[in-house]
Write a structure and sequence with these properties.
Layout: H1 13-24, H2 29-35, H3 40-52, E1 56-59, E2 62-65, H4 67-78
Antiparallel strand pairs: 1-2
Helix pairs in contact: 1-3, 2-3
Amino acid sequence: MTTVIKPVQLAGLKQAAYVMECLVIGQSKEEIVRRLEGDGQLVDMWISFLRHNHWMEETVKGWSITTKGAAWSRNAKSSQTV
């Protein structure tokens, strides 16, 4: 059984993790905004948050997760309840 998660229903840092994963797989900011019901300001805020905390960085090849971001992401996923 597959559970479909609506990104707009994610709470707190789970939205940040969602944005981070979307950027890493190459989705554009505009695609992410559409999935979060057109809330561009929210996406900008999460991108800023991820950069500021050194969890992600943007390179000429695209977005990548830092070591710190990978550790945080693993912890966030392990604490999720199904």
